[in-house]
Amino acid sequence: WDESRHLWVLDTNKGQTLARTVVFATGPITEAQIPSLPGLDSFKGEMFHSAKWNHDYDLTGKRVAVIGTGASAIQFVPQIQPKVKELHVFQRTAPWVLPKPDMDLGDTSKQLIDKLPII
Fold first, then answer.
1. Which residue of 17, 36, 75, 111 has the fewest CB atoms within a 10 Å radius of its CB?
2. What's the pLDDT tens digit per position in 36-45?
3. First CA to last CA across the chain, in angstroms?
4. Contact 7, 19 (CB under 8 A)
5. Could you give the angle at the alpha carbon of 54 between the alpha carbons of 60 and 52, nearest 5°?
6. What is the largest CA-CA distance in the chain?
7. Which residues contact 1 (CB under 8 A, 6 or more apart)?
8. Strands 63-67 and 86-90: what pairing?
9. Sign of the C-alpha dihedral computed for residues 17, 20, 23 and 28 taken in this order
10. Rounded CA Rg of the chain
C-alpha cells in the first residue's frame, strides 16, 4: 500500500501494477505444480498441467488420466469427457464443492440477469 498515492503497488513476474482495489482470487496455488510420482520421468505419452494447456494436442479418442479434482478439473473434465476414449480422474484431496450444473440459461434468464445483476 502506497499511502501517499492511496494505491496498491503490486509487483509481479510481469511487472508492476498500481490499483485502487485488489481482489485476490488466485487460489492457494498460483504456479503450476507437477506432483512427484514414481515413473513420471519415464512416461512416454503427452503430459501437461491444466494451467499450461497444450491446445495443439488433440485428446479425441485418447486414454486420458487427470490427477486432481480442484477448480481447474471441475472446469475442463466435463469438456474433455465427451471427446476422449477413456477418462480416469485421480483425486488427491477431496474438494469442498457443490455439484456444478451446466445448463443453458436461455434468453429470459439472461435478460433478467442483465436487468437485475445483484440477484
1. 36
2. 889 999 999 9
3. 33
4. yes
5. 135
6. 59
7. 7, 8, 9
8. parallel
9. positive
10. 20
pLDDT tens per residue across span 73-89: 888 999 999 999 999 99
Backbone angles phi, psi at 14, to 5 degrees: -110, 10
* Contact predicate 35/92, CB 8 Å: yes
94-116 per-position pLDDT tens digit = 666 677 777 888 899 888 888 88
Q: Determine contact, residues 65/90, Cβ cutoff 8 Å.
A: yes
Rounded distance, CA 96 to CA 111, Å? 31
Helices (H) and strands (E) in the chain, counts: 2, 4
Instruction: Return the SS3 of 27.
Output: coil
Q: Which three cell numbers stand for residue 21?
A: 482495489
- Residue with the bigger pLDDT between 30 and 61: it is 61
Quote the pTM value.
Answer: 0.56
Using the structure block, give the residue that is written with the C-alpha cell 445448463: 103
